[in-house]
Amino acid sequence: MKCCFCGHGRYWEVPNSIVALLLETIEYLINYRNVDTFISGGMGEFDRLCESAIGELKKSYSHIKLFLYIPYMTKYLSNNMEYLHKKYDEIIYPELEQVYYKSAIQKRNRIMIDESDFMVAYVRNDKGGARQSYNYAKRSKKIKIINLVEYI
Hints:
single chain; alpha/beta; Rossmann fold; six-stranded parallel beta sheet; 18% strand
C-alpha cells in the first residue's frame, strides 16, 4: 500500500505542532493499513515535515520506503543526486517532457495521487496547488484522505 503527502509549502502555513500528530498518523498507516511506501513531492514545508517523520520512523520500521517524485530536473537536483539517493529509496521522474513546466507540478501531483491508496494532507487554504491536489484526490473514489487540519 502507498501513501502520498499533500500540504502547504510555506513554513508559516504549517505549524510545527503537527509533528506528533503526523508521526502518529503515519505509524497508524504502517501498523493498521499495511502502508509501506510513502511518496513525497519534495517541495515545501509539509513535505519536509513528512520526510523527517519517515526518517524517524525508519529507525523502528526498516521496511518502509520513501519515494521522491520530481516534476522536472533542476540545478539543485542534478547537483545533489548522491545526497538524494541516500535520503530517498527511489527517485521517480515521471514522463512530463510534453507538459509545460508550470503545469508539471500539478501533473506530477496527480500521478502521485493516482498511484496512492492513502493521502496524508495538511490543507486549510481555499487556494493554491495543495488545495487543487487535495480537491483532485477528493474526487477520486480510490484514495482515502486524512487531513490533519481536522484533528488540530
